[in-house]
Each structure stands twice: as structure tokens, then as C-alpha cells.
Amino acid sequence: MDLKNYQHEVVVTDEGLPFKLFAFEGQNGNYVREKHWHRSIEIFAVWEGRLEFTLQEKRFPLNGGEFVIVNSNEVHSIAAPDVNKTVVLQIPQDTFAEYFTDDQFIWFSHGDRETDHRVFTLLQEMYLIYTNGEEANKLQVLSLYYELLYILVTKYRKFNVNEEILKNSKQLKKLSNITRYMKDHYAESISLESMAEQFNYSPSYLSRMFQKHAGINFKDYLLGIRLEHAVRELEETNGQIVDIALGNGFPNSKAFSNAFRDKYGVLPSEYRRSNE
């Protein structure tokens, strides 16, 4: 499969939790998310409205009360032509490490109607409790989350997987290992050269690998990870902007501000004021 037009998405879990749970950014309609992939397992649950999903070139229309599971390294795109209410749960693939096959692979699909209904209900309950904002609710959300993991492993895990699916996953595995390392060490001094040495590639080969499979160059990918963490600190802490910059791998506050403005259209200070 030619992946040169597919972009790799950076997934960062919520603070203090082993997953990321959020309202779909295309909820206002007239939205298209082009083909992309990520290491995490992702579940889209549509409460109201409809979405048009494409998984590995196959279309899956979703209506209210339905959900779809996106597996690790599965190329997908999303179209939301109309207003909708959709919740997204992203689970790091390594959550299921002890259930991997010999190929370091795991795949999920839907179960029976009753089990699907329970999964949909779990996602609803998790989101409603999670967005209530009370710290003590975190434990309740986690209890629902672990029930969901149990269902995925015992009811939805598939052992007989199409060979083409396995081949495509292996194609992205090398890059996923590199991007995982970058997500773990983004605050450190990382360069193309140091990463190439870490994974026994030449810098030019690693650069081509990023451009071909992630659809983005190495520098911009690393920048995206750092900005993702920095944005969360701007929203959730009162830290000084210079400290946020240095704590997330930027050499100084000026470099951080320039990168932030290029991506979000405003300076970090302006973004923070607008979210107060």
C-alpha cells in the first residue's frame, strides 16, 4: 500500500489517565479529516447525527447509536457533513501488550448486538462522568474503562486476520516504534541525527521514512508532539510561558511562540487569555 498521502496523528493521553476521551472536533458538520493513522486503538461513538467513515478504503456509514473501532496503524478518514454529537476514545496500543501475537499485533472487531450496546453505553457513561469535572469521578471513569478493556480483549479480539491487514500493519510498525520513542522523550534534546543513531538508520533514510509513511517531515512531527503537550499546560496550569517552553523541549520562549503562532494563529499568551 502506498502511504505517501497518509499522515500520522499524534495521540497524547489525558493528564493522569491511561486514555484520551473527547468530543469529536467535527461536531459542527462541514468537516473532513483526511486519511491518517496512529498507533492507538480508537473508538468513535455517534450519539446523534451521522459520520462517513473510511477504513482501509472501505466505507462505513455511522448513525446515532453506532460506533466504529479503528485499530492500530489502520488508515482511516472521517467526513462529518452534518451537525453531530460524537465521542472519541483513544487507547494506547501498549495497553494490550500482554495479549499481542508473536508479530506484536492485535486486532479488534465488533461483537454481538448486546455486547455492542454495552460498549456504546460504557462510552456514554464515561464521557458524562468525565466531563462533570469532579476529581473523585476519575475512579468511576477508570472502572468503566477497565470494563471496556475486558470486553475488547474477551469479546472483540480477532485471531484470524486477513494477511493484507497484517502486512500493512508491519509496514508501519518500524515508524511506530520511532514515534513512540519521540513521544516518550519529546522534552529532551532530540535531533534527526540522534534518532537515526538510536534506531541504526542513516539520517537520510530516517528522513525519507518519515516523509513517506507519516506524510510529514521529522522536524514538524516532533514539533507537533511538543505543541500538543504545551497547549495542555497552557490550558491546565498557571506556569510561566518560558517554563512551559523549556519544559516541552523548546530552546527558548521565542521559538515556542513562533511555532505556536504558526500552528494556531495566535501567541501562547493570547491563547491562554481566550481560555480563561
UniProtKB/TrEMBL annotation:
InterPro entries referenced in this protein's UniProt entry, alphabetically: AraC-bd (IPR003313), Homeodomain-like_sf (IPR009057), HTH-like (IPR037923), HTH_AraC (IPR018060), HTH_AraC-typ_CS (IPR018062), RmlC-like_jellyroll (IPR014710), Tscrpt_reg_AraC-type_HTH (IPR020449)
Superkingdom of origin organism: Bacteria
SUPFAM superfamilies: Homeodomain-like, Regulatory protein AraC
Transmembrane intervals: none
The entry's keywords: DNA-binding, Transcription, Transcription regulation
Gene3D superfamilies hit by this protein: Homeodomain-like (1.10.10.60), Jelly Rolls (2.60.120.10)
Domain HTH araC/xylS-type per the UniProt entry, residue ranges: 176-274
Gene Ontology MF term list: DNA-binding transcription factor activity; sequence-specific DNA binding
Pfam families xrefs: AraC_binding, HTH_18
UniProt-listed PANTHER family: ARAC-FAMILY TRANSCRIPTIONAL REGULATOR, HTH-TYPE TRANSCRIPTIONAL REGULATOR EXSA
Entry protein name: AraC-type DNA-binding protein
